[in-house]
Write a structure and sequence with these properties.
The complex is a heterodimer of chains A (478) and B (228). Chain A has 478 residues and is an alpha+beta fold. Helix content of chain A is 58%, strand content 15%. In chain A, helix 4 runs parallel beside helix 7 (220-282). The N and C termini of chain A lie far apart (99 Å). The longest helix of chain B is centred in the last third of the chain and has 15 residues, at 192-206. Chain B is globular, with a radius of gyration of 18 Å. The chains are: A alpha+beta (478), B alpha/beta (228).
């Protein structure tokens, strides 16, 4: 480097000397021509190499001009004041022009440097192809930023994952503590003597962590650009991550639902064979055989019911109830439920109280019918055999409340709180009446899926009344 | 002389065994198919009188099989399925099935459905029935006279057409959409409320106890069925 510099000075001086020699020994011309020629040489030197070389060249040129061309020739003195002016003008022009040329050169060099940094940033962007994982993105970043910008080491603290990522030599000079501290400050900080920069990484005020670069550093502007770039890239990767998690969750729900369906199929298929076979035999059986076959038939029904309840319960719990809402008359829900229960009603007196001008209810009719059916079936089961039942539907503001009241024994206070819990069964009936303890839990799940409530009012000794609400259909007068 | 040839299509061998034993016991001749594809292959050779078709089968499945059968034949098809939602029933009926039975079922119920479906043999539904006669209900479709519970009943034209369509498909559930399109025209189909009013009127006129209908039964959320 110093040798190169020295040779530049030498060449500059030689160029000036060559001009002086040329005009002095070969081509006699007037002094102005000599001065202008020398000025061209000085400008050339300054444009090519810089201010220092140009200054040296211009001093040598002034001295040479004075010594060899200005009267009295052969001395460093000047007689004619005009020549003084010319000499000073020459010197000032040479130095000023050199300075301007030097400035332009430096600008050009800076622009070139910026261009290089932008090119590198672009290279970094391309290197960090979206991976769909914030971690993988950061790991890639700390490797690539060092390669692309020619730094020695890089480090990154990823706050959402509480993780540190590093690249460069084994003994990375940036400690975890440095990074944690950098995440807390607001601005990029550059420690020039130690050749390291640290900066918090955030996007729209949302903290993502901090990064550090060690070694020859790009400009502050570029450093900021790098910080923004990594923030945006991480945020994008996180968005993709979130989206794919949501997709994975949705697929697992779909899978669960498909599993439940296939479970239903797998349990009901053998039951179908059993039921078809046993009912076929029942057609001709008599006496003890008939009694035994009846038991098989009833138990097959019970297993079927149990399977249906387990699957319904699983659907409710998985939040998998798919509602297809329609405006339907409450009376139709009640009638459909009673029709389903015709087999277990056994002549039980049932009063239906539905106001004639009741608006329709907005609900999934099959599921709502299931709730009514469950409540009526419970009333049949848990109240004396010939006691009457009242099913009602009435308007309460924006809601339609459907109720099923029996004249049974009622429900004790302490049991009332748990009656909608899964597997809960009243102590009086636990061993006497068939049931799984899932019916009311399923009913509650269905009502809650509609965004509504189910409750019980009961006086021990007076009977119980179960109610649930459903929204009244808008503008849906019957 | 068998009571008829029935093609049983189900991927479960035990179900096919039970069906064969039971149906043969009731005088039917039984052919089995393991899949929808298998059924479509056997169908033209065997020319069954009725098809019992499982809805969930590997391969083309029951609905698709039903549509394929329907494209070339109008023999009765009863779909059997473990699923009992309204959507599944309507899908089965829309695919051209005559009836839908939920698994597991009692054999008497299935036999009744088979008998009902066979009574409506495809040739007799040509041009619709001439009339219907029971103890408390007489319908003459030619003279458009209805006599119910000892009285002559006047029906509006739409009520009469509704009744005619239901009777023509006795024993089979008719979906709201099908009934609306058959009686009101192809632009209808999404107004089950409309039908409800008509059917309630019809019941008041022909049923002894409209609150507990004996002839026009409601298939909840699916449609109606004429019980003959």
């Amino acid at each position: 480097m110093p040798r190169l510099k020295l040779s530049r000075f030498l060449i500059s001086v030689l160029a000036v000397a060559a001009i002086l020699a040329l005009y002095r020994l070969v081509l006699p011309v007037n002094n102005t021509t000599v001065a202008l020629s020398l000025l061209l040489v000085v400008l050339g030197v300054s444009a090519r190499w810089g201010l220092a070389e140009a200054t040296v060249a211009s001093i040598v040129a002034v001295l040479g001009l004075n010594y060899y061309f200005l009267e009295p020739v052969g001395t460093f003195t000047i007689d004619d004041p005009q020549n003084w002016v010319a000499l000073v003008a020459f010197l000032v022009t040479a130095v000023t022009a050199s300075q301007l040329a030097e400035r332009v050169r430096r600008r050009a060099a800076e622009a070139e440097e910026r261009r290089l940094e932008i090119e590198r940033l672009y290279e970094l962007v391309q290197a960090m192809m979206l991976s769909g994982s914030a971690r993988r993105t950061i790991r890639e970043f700390v490797q690539r930023v060092v390669q692309v910008f020619g730094c020695e080491a890089a480090a990154f603290y990823y706050r959402p994952g509480e993780e540190f990522f590093r690249s460069g030599p084994e003994s990375n000079p940036v400690t975890d503590h440095d990074l944690l501290a950098a995440a807390e400050v607001d601005e990029l900080s550059v420690d020039a003597p130690r050749m390291r920069a640290t900066a918090p990484v955030r996007l729209g005020g949302h903290p993502l962590g901090a990064m550090a670069l060690v070694g020859p550093l790009p400009s502050d502007q570029t450093l900021r650009a790098i910080v923004n770039l990594i923030a945006i890239t991480i945020q994008k990767a996180r968005a993709i991550e979130d989206a794919s998690h949501a997709e994975a969750a949705r697929q697992s729900e779909v899978l669960k639902s498909a599993l439940l369906d296939s479970l239903a199929h797998d349990i009901k298929t053998p039951l179908t064979s059993i039921k078809a076979a046993v009912t076929s035999l029942l057609g001709t059986a008599a006496g003890t055989d008939r009694e035994l076959l009846t038991i098989i038939n009833e138990e097959a029904d019970r297993l079927n019911q149990l399977a249906a309840e387990v699957i319904a319960m699983a659907r409710v719990e998985a939040g998998k109830l798919h509602l297809e809402k329609l405006p339907v008359p409450a009376a139709e829900l009640i009638e459909a439920a009673l029709a389903d229960l015709a087999g277990v009603r056994r002549g039980r007196p049932v009063t239906i109280q539905v106001a004639p001008d009741l608006p329709r209810v907005e609900c999934d009719p099959e599921l709502a019918q299931h709730v009514v059916k469950q409540l009526v079936e419970n009333a049949f089961k848990y109240s004396p055999e010939a006691s009457p039942l009242t099913i009602s539907a009435a308007r309460k503001g924006e809601k339609i409340v459907i109720g099923v009241a029996d004249r049974g024994a009622g429900i004790d206070d302490d049991e009332r709180a748990h009656i909608f819990d899964k597997f809960f069964r009243g102590r009086r009936y636990r061993f006497e009446t068939k049931g799984t303890g899932m019916g009311l839990a399923i009913a509650k799940g269905i009502v809650e899926a509609h965004g509504e409530k189910i409750w019980v009012e009961s006086e021990p000794g007076q009977g119980s009344a179960f109610y649930f609400s459903l929204p009244a259909a808008r503008g849906g007068e019957r | 002389m068998s009571a008829g040839k029935i093609l049983v299509v189900d991927d479960d061998p035990q179900i096919r065994r039970v069906m064969k034993a039971t149906l043969v016991g009731h005088g039917y001749e039984v052919i089995e198919a393991r899949t929808g594809e298998d059924a479509l292959e056997k169908f033209p050779q065997e020319m069954p009188a009725l098809v019992l078709l499982d809805m969930n089968m590997p391969g083309m499945g029951g609905l698709e099989t039903c549509r394929s059968i329907r494209s070339g034949s109008d023999i009765p098809v009863i779909i059997l399925s473990v699923r009992n939602t309204e959507k599944d029933k309507v899908a089965a009926l829309d695919a051209g099935a005559d009836d839908y039975v939920t698994k597991p079922f009692g054999i008497e119920e299935l036999l009744a459905r088979i008998r009902a479906a066979m009574r409506r043999s495809p040739s007799s539904s040509e041009g619709g029935p001439r009339g219907y006669t029971a103890a408390d209900l007489e319908i003459d479709f030619d003279t458009r006279k209805v006599h119910a519970n000892g009285k002559d009943v006047r029906l509006t034209p739409k009520e009469f057409e509704t009744l005619r369509y239901l009777v023509a498909h006795t024993g089979r559930p008719v979906t709201h959409r099908e009934l609306l399109q058959a009686v009101w025209g192809p632009d209808y189909g999404d107004e089950p409320e409309y039908l409800r009013v008509f059917v309630n009127q019809l019941r008041k006129k022909i049923e002894a106890n409209p609150g507990k209908p004996k002839y026009i039964l409601t298939e909840p959320w699916v449609g109606y069925r004429f019980a003959g």
